[in-house]
């Protein structure tokens, strides 16, 4: 005797609403082969740059030392515990202006408004000190001008060709910046210090 079993309804396959790749550019896509060394640059170029990745020029100010700020500190280094009582009388002072500012005429401060460098310890509201007189080297955190907009990134360069460089974001939610032919990209200054208040 033949017995027909009813099949359960299919729960996968076929066309579904909102399925498939999202047409970000509203046009057809093509497959192409690219050099392996250019994959990251192409992915970064395709990733839209968030509006929050722009530092306002209004947050930039010239750093002018109008007073001397000195704090005492012991001559000897100490462990992260209690200093020795014998060190109480062995102190010298540190002028914060001299410590933080090497080139007064070319030093600026910027209040950060982006999270693109979060994993490097720079968060929204932190203040960074920038020295325009320093030449950026590989690995420096810099303030760059991209098409007349400020951005803070890590400077990555080819040691054989200093003009072959790109800017690395320290937050996976933000794209790296690779200069293109029509981009106006230049390093504006090197970040020398991060000022972060803990309370």
From TrEMBL:
InterPro entries: LexA-like, LexA/Signal_pep-like_sf, LexA_repressor, Peptidase_S24_LexA, Peptidase_S24_S26A/B/C. Keywords: Autocatalytic cleavage, DNA damage, DNA repair, Hydrolase, SOS response. The keyword Hydrolase applies. One of its GO terms (molecular function) is hydrolase activity. Residues 1-22 are annotated as: Disordered. It holds the Pfam family Peptidase_S24. It comes from the Bacteria. Transmembrane segments: none annotated. GO terms for biological process: DNA repair; regulation of DNA-templated transcription; SOS response. Residues 76-191 form the Peptidase S24/S26A/S26B/S26C domain. The keyword ATP-binding does not apply. Belongs to the peptidase S24 family. This is DNA polymerase V.
């Amino acid at each position: 005797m033949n017995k027909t079993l009813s099949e359960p309804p299919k729960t996968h396959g076929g066309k579904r609403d909102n399925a498939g790749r999202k047409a970000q550019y509203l046009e057809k896509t093509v497959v192409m082969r690219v050099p392996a060394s250019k994959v990251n640059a192409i992915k970064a170029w395709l990733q839209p740059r968030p509006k929050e990745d722009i530092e306002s020029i209004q947050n930039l100010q010239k750093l002018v030392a109008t007073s001397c700020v000195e704090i005492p500190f012991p001559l000897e280094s100490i462990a992260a515990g209690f200093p020795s009582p014998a060190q109480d009388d062995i102190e010298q002072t540190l002028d914060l202006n001299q410590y933080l500012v090497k080139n007064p005429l070319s030093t600026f401060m910027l209040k950060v408004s982006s999270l693109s460098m979060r994993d490097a310890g720079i968060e929204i509201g932190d203040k960074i000190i920038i020295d325009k007189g320093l030449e950026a080297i590989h690995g420096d955190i810099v303030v760059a001008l991209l098409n007349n907009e400020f951005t803070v990134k890590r400077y990555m360069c080819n040691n054989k060709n200093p003009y072959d460089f790109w800017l690395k974001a320290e937050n996976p939610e933000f794209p790296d910046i690779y200069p293109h032919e029509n981009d106006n990209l230049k390093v504006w200054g090197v970040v020398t210090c991060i000022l972060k208040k803990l309370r």
